Amino acid sequence: MSRYFGAYLPLDLDLSCYIVLLMWIGYTARQRGLEPSVSKPLLFMGAGVAWLVLAALSGLELSSRRVDGFVVATVAALAGSYCVCWVSMALEKLKDVPVLGAFERGLVFCGQASLAIFAIHAVDWFIPWQTMPLLMTLPASWLFASIVRCACDIGLAYVIKKA
């Protein structure tokens, strides 16, 4: 909306309406019994394929209010949310496996510190990709940038918690 009118609505109302739409869809899905179930691995795989394909065909960046291909981006976001929930439920069933103990503790930390991680993530910082040509030539430079960004956000939140 702000892209067409050239001005942002107060209190991020344009963005808030989109978030409310996503929350309503999730609420409705739960009310109708469509929430993820570990006993449905084929549905998980289908949602995962849909997520990857549709995310590649669209764009959704809430911080810059960019939604390219509204319907496709929304379906990709919902499929991604479904996959994340499914994996979380699957990990919960495997919590007694010793190898997953450290991984589970990391996820618990991220859950407990999610507000701090989000606050750190919301602070704009710049990875100078243009000054590092080697990084731009990596086969999935966006994936590398995402991993670095998330690791920095979580690492800073951990340092703040320990301080």
Global outline: globular
**Uncertain segments:** none
Helix- and strand-based class?
mainly alpha
SS field, number of helical segments: 8
Largest sheet: 2 strands, antiparallel
Order of helices and strands: HHHEEHHHHH
* Mean pLDDT across residues: 81
Radius of gyration of CA atoms, rounded to a whole number: 18 Å
Strand content: under 5%
How helix-rich are the residues, as a percent range? 55-70%
Distance between the termini: 42 Å
Strands, count: 2
The spatial strand order of the largest sheet comes to 1-2
Q: How many domain modules?
A: 2
Give an overview in words.
With 163 residues, the chain is mostly helical. The chain has two domains: 1-93, no CATH class; 96-163, no CATH class. The protein contains eight helices and two strands, in the order αααββααααα. It has helices spanning 2-5, 13-31, 41-57, 70-93, 98-112, 114-122, 133-136, 141-162, and strands at residues 59-61, 66-68. Strands 1-2 form a two-stranded antiparallel sheet. The longest helix has 24 residues, at 70-93. It is globular and about 55 Å long. It starts with a helix and ends with a helix.
